[in-house]
Every structure is written in structure tokens, then in C-alpha cells.
Amino acid sequence: MTWAMKYLKHKYSAVKVESDGIVFDSKLEERYYQQLKIRKRIGEVVLFLMQVPFRLSGGVFYRVDFIEFLADGTVRFVDTKGMITQECKNKIKQVEAEYPPIRIEIVTKDQV
Description:
The protein has helices at residues 3-7, 27-41, 86-98; strands at residues 17-19, 22-24, 45-56, 60-70, 75-80, 104-107. It has 112 residues and is α+β, with helices and mostly antiparallel strands. It has one domain: Trna Endonuclease, Chain: A, domain 1 (3-Layer(aba) Sandwich), CATH 3.40.1350.
């Protein structure tokens, strides 16, 4: 972890965390990652991708935290959020409009 990651404050008080050599933007995102690893080990999740970008019109990008491929064939798009801003809501709506049938699920700290 770099000096800046340890000492610079995030605008929403999120704390960067390192686990398995991966730096996560928040403790919540890291906890969800740990849950995904367990779900993969027991066979519920076949595989998952992290930090997948979506290119949106106007040169905007939205990066979803996780894409989960479940054993039953379901694909979930999951974002972990400690605070849901209006900008976040707008970008999610834009992703869902430009990439149907994608639906992004928000996971909050009381769900992990």
C-alpha cells in the first residue's frame, strides 16, 4: 500500500484495505470480496470479476465492483456502497439504459 493510500482521506471517509494483494476502495468492498470467495468455495458462485468498466455515452465510465456468475446460470452486477450519491444513481440508470438487460444491485454495509 502506498503512502497516499494510507494517509489521504477519502471524501466519504472510506478506508482503503488490502487483502490477497488486492487494494479495495473500502472495508465494505473487501468484506463482500471475502464473502464471494466463500460462496465460490461452496459452489454457489462459479466465478466473479472485479472492477469491470462500462463505457457510457459522453466519454463517461462506470466501474461496477463485481460481476458474479452463479451456479444456476444467473449473472449479478453488484456495487458496494457505503453512501449512495445522486451521481451514482444517475450513472447506474445510464448503464442500465445503455446496456439492457443489466440491472446493478447495490449492497450496503448492513447487508454484508
